């Protein structure tokens, strides 16, 4: 149910309407062998929390992409099947590499992607070793499950699909597209509570406007995310 509202609004909805995105939601509980549809159990070795079982996750993955389990030693951009169609299987975890705009663009080359949403303490690590090709984190914090990161990833990808955003130039000037944060934006009215739009933006001098925008990108990045300038 968490995905219904997300997929019926804004950019994901437009992407589906234009045939650029197709989402197949799979309930892992449907693959449980337990009469109560249970998909978790206590961890070996003791400790707090519950772990999602390997069997239902593997069965869910195999139901849409049957194949022999493989190790996850290579990155998402590598065709590990010797030229055969390769479907990335992404697991969202705080232990994964940070999701960046470059990572999002890397995944645009694939026509199909499987997103695995964990829950509870963790998923059985054997799934990560045998099936998962990419582990991704959306930040240094912990969420209740992988559903929200999956939505974040989907939305980020949708914005870059052909003909989804009416003005593609808009996406190319967003934060992180050129390695920097975005510049300040203004719209009508010209004056709001005593604050006016910077003169350069109403000057009509496009080269000066572009120069101002680039300068602001550097200033904001240096102030808020100096680590991006180092990279």
pLDDT under 50 segments (min length 5)?
Answer: 68-84
The percentage of residues in β strands lies in: 5-15%
Query: What is the typical, i.e. mean, pLDDT?
Result: 91
End-to-end CA span: 39 Å
CATH topology label of the largest domain: Alpha/beta knot
Portion in helices:
25-40%
Can you tell me the CATH superfamily of the largest domain?
A: SPOUT methyltransferase, trefoil knot domain
What's the architecture of the largest domain, going by CATH?
3-Layer(aba) Sandwich
Structural class: alpha/beta
Q: With helices defined by DSSP (H or I, 4 residues minimum), what is the helix count? A: 9
**Spatial extent as radius of gyration:** 22 Å
Under the CATH scheme, which class of the largest domain? Alpha Beta
Number of strands: 8
| Helix-strand sequence | HHEEHEHEEHEHHEEHH
Outline the secondary-structure elements:
Layout: H1 2-7, H2 10-17, E1 40-41, E2 51-52, H3 54-64, E3 89-98, H4 101-106, E4 114-116, E5 122-123, H5 125-130, E6 134-137, H6 147-158, H7 168-172, E7 191-192, E8 195-196, H8 206-224, H9 226-230
Parallel strand pairs: 2-5, 3-4, 3-6
Antiparallel strand pairs: 1-2, 7-8
How would you describe this protein?
It is elongated and about 70 Å long. The relative contact order is 0.13. The model is unreliable at 68-84 (pLDDT under 50). The chain is α/β, with parallel strands linked by helices and 231 residues long. The protein has helices at residues 2-7, 10-17, 54-64, 101-106, 125-130, 147-158, 168-172, 206-224, 226-230, and strands spanning 40-41, 51-52, 89-98, 114-116, 122-123, 134-137, 191-192, 195-196. It has a three-stranded mixed beta sheet with strand order 1-2-5. The protein is built from nine helices and eight strands. Helix 4 (101-106) links the parallel strand 3 and strand 4 (114-116). The protein folds into two domains: 2-158, SPOUT methyltransferase, trefoil knot domain (Alpha/beta knot, 3-Layer(aba) Sandwich), CATH 3.40.1280.10; 173-230, tRNA(m1g37)methyltransferase, domain 2 (Trp Operon Repressor, Chain A, Orthogonal Bundle).
